[in-house]
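Example 3.2
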Amino acid sequence: MASELSITVSQFLELSGPRPSVISLTSDQSVGEALHTLASNKIMSAPVVAAADVVMDSLAPENARQYLGMIDVQQLLFHAVRILRERIQAKHLDTDPAFKQQCWELFQEMGDELFEAELLNLCGNDAGIIFPGWWTEATLKELISVGFLRADEQEAAHEEQTAHRVLICNSSHSAQVDGIISQSDVVRFVADHPNCFEPGVIDKTLEELEFLAQQTPTEIVSVNQKMSALDAFELMERRGVSGLAVLNDEGQLVGNLSASDLRGMGRHEFGDLLMSVEDFTLINKDQVQGYCLPPDATLDCLLQTFKEKRVHRLYVVDERNSPMAVITLTDVMRLLTQTSLVCRLAPF
């Protein structure tokens, strides 16, 4: 039987079942409105399209909204953290209670300024784009390689550039977004179709697949639970990651800090960034267990956990619950491009 990785992207969309409609933001919306939309729809990102009165392309179909870029919670978070840090002009938060109270009051007041900022100025491009004529013929494996892992761009730029999502555009003139495929969508599909891999691969352990050999515990980006959330998010931006392992004084994993923790924050709640990571996340040991796997867990267990928990990263921990490795959805995308592990492509 042929590998499901050989199906076309259009077939993948059919097999994946009904897809939710695309939630878009318009260029004339504010950061506050964007955060509200993302939170109410329980999503981390959305495409930004030109406002109704903005004509970007004279060849675009009538009523088409041209795609301008992506906006996600992480972009908004890092923007807010940079502004807040500039205002207090301190490398680390002072332990003086009076100074901390002044910072808290300043952060609360700045919520209005942050929420009223123009969305268009913060658009990024953390998405691949596929146009008609390509996605109807391209295979799922090609989507992973070119769309998510951006193999062509990495070769030209000599550096790693990945996308968490791929936009489907049916009009090459207007770049109108008609659908979105995320890395999570692909992982859920692969979890349900284990014959994407060569026989026996799905039952190999994470250690056998060398997930642990690809990194050491010291390479895992982590913070102590007593660190301020502001300092932790600054570290997240500096290291170019979307999540941090939260450790206690014994080096045990007790939580995960990510940009999604900001999604429901109100305009007068930015003072919460002065809290410790422990208080900010409100994650306890029982909750974090869903993010952990032992090194002898199988690839099938990894895929099913990603599917059921709907998370973007999982930690491999030892018997003390200390992190040994972190596995992300992007790591699974890379695994799916290894020709020694996946089934050879053949007509579906």
